[in-house]
Design a protein that fits this description.
Elements: H1 2-16, H2 22-45, E1 65-66, E2 75-76, H3 80-84, E3 88-89, E4 98-105, H4 112-122, E5 126-130, H5 132-137, H6 139-147, E6 151-154, H7 168-186, E7 193-194, H8 203-211, E8 215-217, H9 234-243, E9 249-254, H10 258-273, E10 277-279, H11 281-290
Parallel strand pairs: 3-8, 4-5, 4-9, 4-10, 5-6, 7-8
Antiparallel strand pairs: 1-2
Helix pairs in contact: 4-10, 9-10
InterPro entries: Glyco_hydro/deAcase_b/a-brl, NODB_dom, Polysacc_deacetylase_ArnD, Spore_PdaA
GO molecular function: hydrolase activity, acting on carbon-nitrogen (but not peptide) bonds
Keywords: Membrane, Transmembrane, Transmembrane helix
Length: 291
């Protein structure tokens, strides 16, 4: 590669230096070569899987998934076994057609009541991972979630990048402030289920959560449903949520999604037709604790 380039470059210099525009042409040649080389490197080093979406990974830890086989769990940043040592999960390792439904709640825009209506109609339990301000702003919805058999989990107070927090006292406060708000509204202790905001995590985060008595829950199925003003169509949602469902899935949806509110009744029915049972995340937690 280097010898070929050197020879080409030498001929180019010899044949173009006699022209007034040699300098400009030389710059164009170098830019084109550099761009072509860069593109070639990118294409050669970017992983691609059939039916896969981009998987983000970094030293800080951005939860990522690669879907490779329909009806099977995606390949994730960590294996079941690697997460288990920290009481963490992204799905259940099973061939049984069960799934666990979770919602991340950063704020309320009017879609949660319809979501709760659909869950109630199907007798489907869910876990709502809420930030602290959601509890303060929507105490009646929190009470309704509890009264209808759902679980409220901890999504931190400020929704920060927890991978950037190294001090245990700061990490702990993000969780305990939510616990305090929950207890003030419900009079009960909060279930110690934790979901890292944006799926950003580190090994020390997982250890911290474990030391505080929490189990950490990532997910094995989600789709881009969080842009309030750019909602997916029903067809786009079903393509992901039906096409990629698998035994033991932990499904992540957002309560702010208008599409989710509109399709959830039909979606739950379709999953049921496929033979899936929706179970409470507490069952997965209990089974893991019993091992």
């Amino acid at each position: 590669m280097r010898n070929s380039f050197s020879h080409t470059f030498s001929l180019f210099i010899r044949n173009t230096l006699l022209t007034k525009k040699a300098g400009a042409v030389l710059l164009i040649f170098l830019a084109a070569y550099t761009l072509g080389t860069g593109i070639g490197f990118f294409l050669d080093h970017t992983p691609f899987h059939k039916n896969a979406e981009a998987v983000e990974t970094s030293a800080e830890g951005n939860w990522g998934l690669s879907f490779q086989e329909e009806g099977q769990p995606p390949v994730a940043n960590a294996t079941f076994e690697e997460l288990a040592q920290y009481d963490a999960f992204y799905a259940q390792d099973t061939n049984e057609k069960i799934l666990y439904l979770t919602f991340d709640c950063g704020y309320e825009n009017g879609n949660t009541p319809q979501i709760l209506d659909a869950l109630k109609k199907h007798g489907a339990p869910a876990t709502f991972f809420v930030v602290g301000t959601y509890i303060e702003s929507n105490p009646e919805l929190i009470k309704r979630m509890i009264s209808e058999g759902h679980t409220v989990g901890n999504h931190t107070w400020h929704h920060p990048d927890m991978a950037q927090i190294s001090a245990m006292e700061i990490f702990q406060k993000e969780l305990t402030d939510v616990e305090d708000a929950y207890k003030e509204v419900t009079g009960e202790e909060m279930t110690k289920f934790y979901r890292p905001p944006q799926g950003k995590y580190s090994e020390s985060n997982l250890k911290n959560a474990q030391q505080l008595g929490y189990q950490t829950f990532f997910w094995s199925l989600a789709y881009v449903d969080w842009y309030e003003n750019d909602q997916p169509t029903k067809e786009e949602a079903f393509d992901k949520l039906i096409g990629r469902i698998h035994p033991g899935a932990i499904v992540l949806l957002h309560n702010t999604s208008r599409t989710n509110a509109e399709i959830l009744d039909e979606l739950l029915g379709k999953w049921e037709e496929m033979g899936y049972q929706i179970r409470a995340l507490a069952e997965l937690s209990a089974q893991a604790s019993a091992k």
